[in-house]
Automatic annotation (TrEMBL), chains A, B:
Keywords for this protein: DNA-binding, Transcription, Transcription regulation
Span of domain HTH crp-type: 175-223
Matches recorded under Gene3D superfamilies: Jelly Rolls, Winged helix-like DNA-binding domain superfamily/Winged helix DNA-binding domain
A GO molecular function held by the record: DNA binding
Protein name per Swiss-Prot or TrEMBL: Crp/Fnr family transcriptional regulator
Pfam families given in the database record: cNMP_binding, HTH_Crp_2
UniProt record, GO biological process: regulation of DNA-templated transcription
Source organism of the structure: Salinicola corii
Amino acid sequence: MTRSISPNDLMIRRLQSIHPLSNEEVRALGELPLEVASLESGHDIVRMGDRPKQCCVVIEGCTCIYKLTSEGGRQIMAIHVPGDIPDIQSLHLGLMDFGLAAISACTVGYIPHEKIQQMCEAHPRLGVALWRETLIDAAIYRDWMLNIGQREAFGRVAHLVCELMVRLKAVGLTEGDSFKFPVTQANLADAFGISSVHMSRVYGALAASGLLKVTRSRIQVLDWDELLEAGDFDPTYLHLEKSAPA
Amino acid sequence: MTRSISPNDLMIRRLQSIHPLSNEEVRALGELPLEVASLESGHDIVRMGDRPKQCCVVIEGCTCIYKLTSEGGRQIMAIHVPGDIPDIQSLHLGLMDFGLAAISACTVGYIPHEKIQQMCEAHPRLGVALWRETLIDAAIYRDWMLNIGQREAFGRVAHLVCELMVRLKAVGLTEGDSFKFPVTQANLADAFGISSVHMSRVYGALAASGLLKVTRSRIQVLDWDELLEAGDFDPTYLHLEKSAPA
DNA sequence: CGGACATTTGAACACTCTCAAGATTTGTGG
DNA sequence: CCACAAATCTTGAGAGTGTTCAAATGTCCG
């Protein structure tokens, strides 16, 4: 079912989903050299304080951006799926103000900053596409802040499931009404700003309401309309070229 | 004390604080045409769903970015001070996914997108500076998410006061250990994801602890070291060229 | 089949909320 | 310059959502 995809393809799909690209631009993206690596869950890809000289592309699995408080709390502020470039901001913000880690077993690719810079000079519209990508990252942060600050835990979870469904569909990684999602509840709890105990209870409530069916490696949406309602979800902030869900 | 500042000057100061600029670049920024307007608190500058053809620069007072839930909750996800360009993202993200409003009486300036585009073509390094500015906006979102998701209300407020002190100092708008801040507690509550009743209690607690002295239009820091501690504050995420506080 | 890790469940507690009333401050008109 | 209206802030009390601690159950991998 999952035919072998060239490592660059998912990144191209992702960029195409937010910005029209010419054949030549697609070719330029396809020619970016990608050093592929397999990581186990929990692996720190880039640490706060680092000054990376390359960008990371997610090829398989999920990564996250996180920060810690001095009290030991961890907030996950972004979850990445295949095609995403989690640390694209390092191109112009040398010093990392957050950590980037794998939250599932995953495959990533590394591209030297230098190669990206050269590509942007040769194809200025790709530079704009990347800028736009960073702006959409920010739009997602805004939506997460609304989610965390104003909704109860039940709604927060519903909202994220809607978001993931739409983002994964845009790169062709949904399978009907479900998608692969091997992220632990403890990690999700850190993304919602709740305890892992409560996370378990909320998942239970979502299942009891007949909205979702969840296993350790997959989420299945049983009632998309009710889920949209529960998550108060509007995909505008994802700024996709065309965004029709499930 | 506050000698008359040209409307463009604060924006230039802000950009200089995050990116070195040549004299020629400063001149180009100074020549941007700015249509100045006075707004009263509560005025909506740009609405969600709009497609603005200009950017807004804050000259005096405070503006905020916000989103609403269908339940009527409002989350403020950014507060802007003079020199900031709140909707700079509209340059490459045509559709507004958030609202921009004045949260104090304020003076703003409008610059047509077209003029900014022309400036970026003539001075590519200014384009990079603006990209960098949007990346720092995102870095601030990340920090707010950590604040809202992982800290108790007391720490959230302490953290924001630290941030404002540093940002205002960078554009020369602090007065010793205090700064002008005519924002209501109800607005702040929406920024912290708490009720206005609790906001009042937290301000009380901060004052009782001897960290702050607050009036309706001004915040005075009484104990900077304790405030840093209480807010668990590290200014790295602001990405200022040199960031020495109070 | 054992062991590490992840999830579930119960119970007491805490931070924050809502509702409601009272106290202050600010702005405006006389 | 005073008086009143509107907005903002403060304070009290009861209710909730989510927390912590602790132990039991379940799942995956070597």
